[in-house]
Specification:
Chain lengths: 605, 369, 374
């Protein structure tokens, strides 16, 4: 196949040797409700062949729009796109013959088996019947799906679906492969496997790949990066160029006599500090250019231990966003504000959530298998796990959405199984998709949820005013919430969950897709809540967010695989290959050890 | 508790009315359907096309034909010369009736023998066929009477004196249009309520409600009262149109009518919520609503009488709220029903409403899985 | 290039067929739903007044009165009940225990004997006007029959000047089931056709698979064809089930040509599927598609197709509207094919209309389905 493709290239007119992708002043607007949103704003770029190009940006940055424009599914308002020299608008069919595109949900037919999905796409891509057997074998081997060809695609795990989706787009090897957020909602183990395949395609076969992602840590695995934010291209180049710009500006700060949250709060308020986030027991700090780390002393922590650390891609992104915000003279970045004190600090030590021998069966399948843990009052507690590990089930049982098969669930002094309605009055819950009433305005949503939690009269009005002020929702109060940008939706969802000043807050992937600045602002609020005594239970796929937790559990196949602080989990997997393991390394090691163990059990049985 | 329910109701209304598309579904189609169906759905015959094969060609025969053409029910479209024309005309549905006047017609008539007249009708629609025969009989009877009177013969003894109570002109619009009140009220209520829980489930907001301290009863009331108000409003608009546009008399007054409508909307709301809570997705809810709606309309007595159905099917209609609603609405329009005489209709609907609402409330949590 | 089209079409059709086979709901919609509805309605829907609860009030018993009322007890149409006086019968009528009553006054026998008008009272519950009219006609007919037979017995000249000889063609037993069942097939298949397809394209949009399809070399023609072919076969299967039930279970005669029936059914199915596809393409989400399908299929097919309400008697503007209801043409063809035979003058124009509708809906679906997202 490769040889044939090369011959073709050589035989074609010289213009086809052009760059895989040329974008010129590309602009595209959408109408959402009454607002006109500029999804892409005069984006220009040229990419080199045989590379993995990362299209990096939070949700709403314009990544999917750009992918669809390149694939010929949308038409640009102005500007043009050339794929290997061919204008997409002029000849979309020719372009579609050169590219392959995997949309966000992988484009699989869930009621068809793995083999049937492959057959369908082979037919659609016009692969000759005699060439198929070899190609299937190669793809199935590469994706590790050879043992599952008769299984329905809908019955595959998230990671396997993602690999099957990829295999389907690759049956006829394209010259340019477009992958739209292939790693979203997928656990770190599967993400690593996907990256291995992409590397293989690019290095081994010389394919060009354009891959979009909202995970900033994935940028460092790309050859080149296009950084999008609110429809604008705010940076392009090799990831190393981005991190080099930050050289000497990243540090780890440890202070003995102050809590990590207080330290992070103090540091982020310092002028000259670009960014400060919690990392295990320490705080990771990024300074503005030309600032001496000595300024830490100004926060009253003269004896803090400051160690330089290598810069990360995310540091540069934050830096760029802040510079942009400053240039546009918007109010100073949110992290510069004092933390929002939701109430007087009244943290009484003690246990807030107690789970013991919790079990949930669906028919024969044991989704949660005898797990126990406790969460102390005012603690931020993380619930992590691979897809299908049982963390969502556990989470739903904790909020009282799902009855447990057996075991006990205690929230405060209430047993969730007997005093559900009373116990629910003390809980706040923020769902994964920021589930609010899209047809209602911001104010109407706040009114509804305040009443739903039993607030009335002056108290209710006071809380609504508080929410509008505290979450800066006032300018948007009459906007229909469906049309709000994601960051606003997230703030509103949190505001709704906090209307009744709950003692316990449940957050289900609270920051997925939100841009990094909004994520920092969000965590700042959560930290302030925890300091005031609110207990927070959170699930997340972002490994850096796991570092913000005081303690966490990692679940696998319905069981708790490990429990502890992020430091202790990381040090547990320290070995020769990983002298300084990241949270992700720790996570992957635990999951892999667990699946090896169960595989061994199957073999023994 | 009251505050919570009120908040739910307000939210439900906002969710329905703020969206232009769902506003449209509530207002546009029902009114269009009322007007179109109100005019279309009728068993009365007008301008039935017919042909005459007059073999007699006498003045008496022409007089008989004139009686037919003078009636608004009939329109003469052809006059035939031979009897094989009859077949092709009826086969091709150009006429629905052929009046065949025997060559002996005037002679027999004058000599006091029964004068033969043949009425051939197209039986492909048997109901229309029977009605045409009835109309034709009436025209011929009127003709006989005039013939007897003008020729000094004793009036034929066959004087039936039919009297239709409640609907003296036997106008079938009076029968069908009150039925449409029930029909459209049911369709709109089902569309509004039947999808409400499934939609919130898909959007994730139902979980959000379930984690608040609200109890199933609060949610049930908060979900059913908006359906009730919308159903009643829809019903009221259609009742207004029925009275003022279609001029169907409202003899029974509003009290029995609205009590019936209230119970009807309640039971439809209950069934809608039950379907909605059983369904995992909106698509399932839609199919469920549909599968309930079609038989409930056909087996309600809306177009064809329940008493004509086999016993087993008749028994099935006991659980169809529309069956009771139709009786109540029709009788409230055309009679002065007493409360007690309608009790056998009110009670089963109330029971259906209670059972279905209770089941829906129970399913809210069951299906939360 | 040509081989590519066939390969793609084959792949798509196979995919669609597999999805149908895996998804029990489409099989249920195609076979179970029509069979169930046809059975339910075939047995349930009837316009024939049978065993009508008819009250009889005889104020003064006499031989004449007995022989006249015997007519009703011997008729399959009536289930007579006796009442002592008109007031009691009137009460029963207003409680709906009877549908009407016949009132023979005390001078009935005397007046009949004297050749005078006996002034018989016939009271019917006019709420169901159709039923009332049918009862009136039945009673009228019974009365005419009775006096004629009385005159015959007495050897007197016929008291009725005109003898009406009714002939009902095609359906001599005037069984309403024979005409309702073919009509029901049309109503039910409208439902099935639109429901089957209304959701399928919308489903692809919702699940994101349409995006993946559109980036391949597949053209919109190919996608639409691949949707129509399997569902067409499925719908025709449902049609076959319905016709079988009609003929063998309900005993409706099928006088016309099976070939013409198949042709008409195919065109009708294509029109229904085309309408479903159009709805599906415009709506792009299953929720809206389903709602439009419900509003635009069932009630119009039920009320405006001439299946139960006579189109010729509707006001002219409404008659115009009925022309856009595909079921109207199919109902007409079916009623003729079943009860009258292959009557080309009826069938041909209706077939043409169906062909036009099929072309219109499929064409409109093709125009509406563009290979782009905006």
């Amino acid at each position: 196949m490769r040889r044939a493709a090369r011959l073709c290239v050589a035989a074609m007119p010289p213009e086809t040797d052009a760059a895989p992708l040329v974008l010129e002043q590309l602009t595209r607007r959408f109408k959402i409700g009454k607002r006109v949103v500029v999804a892409l704003d005069a984006v220009s770029a040229t990419t080199a062949p045989g590379l993995v190009i990362g299209l990096i940006g939070p949700d709403g940055a314009g990544k999917t729009t750009l992918m669809r424009l390149i694939a010929g599914l949308l038409r640009a308002d102005s500007g043009n796109i050339r794929v290997f020299g061919t204008d997409v608008a002029a000849d979309p069919l020719k372009v579609q013959g050169m590219i392959a595109y995997m949309p966000q949900r992988f484009g699989l037919y869930e009621d068809l088996s793995v083999q049937e999905n492959l057959d369908l796409y082979a037919d659609l891509q016009g692969v000759a019947p005699e060439a198929r057997a070899a190609r299937y074998a190669e793809l199935l081997h590469m994706t590790g799906l050879a043992a599952f060809t008769t299984r329905l695609a809908g019955k595959l795990s998230g990671g396997m679906k993602q690999k099957l989706g990829l295999a389907c787009t690759l049956i006829q090897p394209p010259r340019l492969l477009l992958l739209d957020e292939p790693t979203v909602g997928v656990d770190p183990v599967s993400r690593r496997e996907l990256w291995a395949i992409v590397d293989h395609l690019v290095r081994g076969q010389g394919m060009s790949v354009l891959l979009s992602t909202a995970y900033l840590d994935e940028a460092e695995r790309c050859d080149e990066v296009l950084l999008l934010h609110e429809g604008k291209l705010i940076g392009a180049g090799k990831p190393s160029q981005f991190t080099q710009a930050m050289a000497g500006r990243s540090f780890q700060v440890r202070a003995a006599n102050i809590s990590k949250r207080a330290l992070q709060g103090a540091l982020s308020r310092l002028p000259g500090v670009t960014d400060a986030i919690i990392q295990g027991e320490a705080v990771r700090m990024v300074l503005d250019a030309g600032i001496n780390p000595g300024i830490v002393g100004e926060s009253g922590q003269a004896d803090a231990v400051i160690t330089p650390v290598p810069p990360r891609f995310e540091d540069r992104f934050i830096d760029l966003l802040k510079a942009k915000a400053a240039a546009m003279a918007i109010e100073p970045a949110p992290s510069a504000k004092p933390p929002a004190a939701a109430r007087a600090p009244a943290a009484q030590p003690g246990t807030e959530i107690e789970v013991s021998h919790l079990l949930k069966r669906f028919g024969d399948f044991c989704a949660v298998d005898d797990i126990s843990f406790t969460v102390a009052r005012g603690e931020i507690f993380g619930l992590l796990g691979a897809n299908g590990a049982g963390k969502s089930t556990t989470f739903r049982m904790l909020c009282g959405l799902l009855p447990a098969t057996s075991g006990s669930l205690q929230v405060g002094s209430f047993n969730l199984r007997t005093a559900a309605a009373t116990a629910r009055g003390r809980l706040g819950y923020m769902a994964q998709k920021f589930s609010l009433y899209g047809d209602l305005s911001v104010l109407q949503n706040l009114r509804f949820f305040s009443a739903a939690y039993g607030l009335t009269g002056a108290k209710r009005n006071a809380r609504i005013d508080w929410a509008l002020r505290e979450f800066e929702l006032a300018p948007m109060r009459d906007a229909t919430s469906r049309d709000l940008p994601l960051g606003f939706k997230q703030r509103m969802a949190l505001a709704c969950a906090l209307m009744h000043e709950p003692d316990v807050l449940f957050l289900d992937e609270p920051t997925s897709g939100v841009d990094p600045l909004a994520r920092r602002e969000f965590w700042q609020r959560i930290n302030a809540l925890a300091d005031s005594g609110v207990t927070v239970l959170v699930t997340t796929h972002f490994m850096d967010e796991a570092e913000y937790c005081d303690r966490l559990v990692i679940m696998g196949q319905g069981k708790v695989l490990a429990e502890g602080t992020s430091e202790s989990l990381k040090s547990a997997c320290r070995d020769a290959t990983h002298p300084d393991p990241s949270m992700e390394d720790a996570f992957v090691a635990l999951i892999e050890a667990d699946s090896a163990r169960s595989a061994a059990q199957v073999r023994a049985a | 508790m009251l505050h919570r329910i009120l908040a739910l109701i307000i939210k439900e209304f906002l969710a329905i009315l703020r969206d232009a598309k769902s506003r449209m579904v509530l207002i546009g189609p029902p009114l269009i359907q009322l007007v179109v169906f109100g005019y279309a759905a009728s068993f009365d015959l007008n301008h039935v096309p017919f042909a005459v094969y007059d073999q007699d060609r006498s003045v008496a025969a022409q007089d008989l034909v004139a009686h037919f053409t003078g009636s608004p029910a009939f329109t003469e479209v052809a006059s035939l010369k031979s009897d094989h024309e009859i077949k092709s005309l009826i086969n091709s549905r150009q006429v629905e009736m052929v009046l065949v006047i025997d060559p002996r017609f005037s002679r027999d008539l004058l000599t006091g023998k029964a004068a033969p007249v043949q009425v051939i009708v197209d039986g492909r629609n048997s109901n229309t066929a029977l009605l045409i025969l009835g109309y034709a009989n009436a025209v011929i009877t009127a003709y006989s009477q005039r013939w007897a009177a003008t020729h000094g013969l004793p009036s034929p003894p066959a004087q039936l004196d039919p009297r239709a109570l409640f609907n003296p002109n036997l106008d079938s619009h009076w029968f069908i249009i009150p039925g449409i009140v029930a029909l459209l009220t049911q369709v709109v209520t089902l569309l509004v309520v039947g999808l409400s829980v499934a939609r919130e489930r898909e959007a994730g907001t139902f979980d959000q409600i379930l984690v608040t301290p609200m109890r199933p009863l609060d949610i049930l009331l908060g979900k059913s009262i908006p359906g009730l108000i919308i159903g009643l409003a829809e019903g009221s608009v259609i009742i207004l149109a029925t009275v003022f546009w279609f001029k169907v008399p409202l003899h029974g007054g509003l009290a029995p009518l609205y009590l019936g409508l209230l119970l009807f909307v309640f039971s439809v709301t209950g069934i809608g919520l039950m379907i909605s809570s059983l369904a995992a997705t909106q698509q399932q809810a839609l199919l469920g609503a549909f599968l309930f709606m079609v038989p409930s309309i056909i087996l309600s007595g809306f177009a064809t009488p329940i008493s004509n159905m086999p016993v087993i099917v008749q028994d099935l209609t006991w659980i169809n709220p529309m069956r009771y609603a139709l009786v109540i609405i029709r009788r409230s329009f055309l009679e002065h029903p007493s409360f007690t005489s309608l009790l056998p209709q009110y009670l089963p609907m109330a029971a259906l409403a209670l059972v279905s609402l209770a089941a829906a409330g129970w399913l809210f949590r069951k299906r939360a899985v | 290039m040509k081989a590519g089209i066939w390969m793609r079409l084959r792949g798509l059709i196979r995919k669609e067929s597999l999805q149908i086979l895996r998804d029990p709901s489409s099989i249920a919609i195609a076979f179970l739903l029509p069979a169930m509805l046809l059975l339910l309605f075939g047995y349930g829907v009837s316009l024939d007044a049978k065993h009508v609860a008819l009250g009889i009030v005889v104020e003064q018993p006499s031989a004449a009165a007995a022989s006249f009322t015997a007519q009703f007890s011997n008729s399959p149409y009536f289930a007579p009940q006796s009442f002592p006086n008109a007031a009691a019968a009137q009460t029963a009528l207003s409680h709906e225990t009877i549908d009407g009553f016949v009132w023979l006054r005390s001078d009935f026998a005397r007046r009949v004997a004297a050749g005078q008008d006996p002034d018989i009272g016939v009271y019917v519950d006019g709420i169901n006007a159709n039923n009332a009219r049918l009862i009136e006609n039945y009673v009228q007919q019974s009365w005419a029959d009775w006096i004629t037979s009385q005159a015959d017995l007495a050897g007197a000249s016929n008291p009725v000047p005109i003898n009406v000889e009714p002939r009902i063609w095609f359906n001599p037993a005037v069984s309403s089931r024979d005409y309702l069942v073919p009509g029901l097939i049309a109503v039910i298949m409208t439902l099935t056709g639109a429901l089957l397809t209304a959701l399928v394209i919308a489903r692809e949009w919702e699940r994101g698979t349409m995006e993946a399809l559109m980036v391949t070399r597949v053209s919109m023609h190919e996608i639409l064809i691949s949707k129509v072919v399997p569902y067409f076969l499925l719908g025709m299967g449902g049609m076959a089930v319905s016709v079988t039930i009609a003929v063998f279970l309900f005993g409706v005669p099928l006088l016309g040509s099976l070939l013409v029936l198949t042709l008409a059914a195919s065109l009708f199915m294509l029109a229904s599927l085309g309408m479903g596809l159009l709805i599906s393409t415009i709506a792009k989400n299953q929720f809206v598609a389903g709602q439009i399908a419900i509003i635009t299929t069932f009630l119009p097919a039920f009320i405006l197709s001439g299946f139960i309400f006579d189109i010729g008697s509707m006001p002219a503007p409404i008659q115009v509207i009925t022309h856009i209801v595909a079921a109207r043409y199919f109902v007409s063809i079916l009623q003729s094919l079943f009860l009258a035979g292959t009557v080309w003058p009826v069938i041909l124009p209706n077939l043409l209309a169906l062909l036009l509708m099929a072309v219109f809906f499929l064409g409109a679906a093709r125009l509406a389905a563009r290979k782009r997202l905006d």
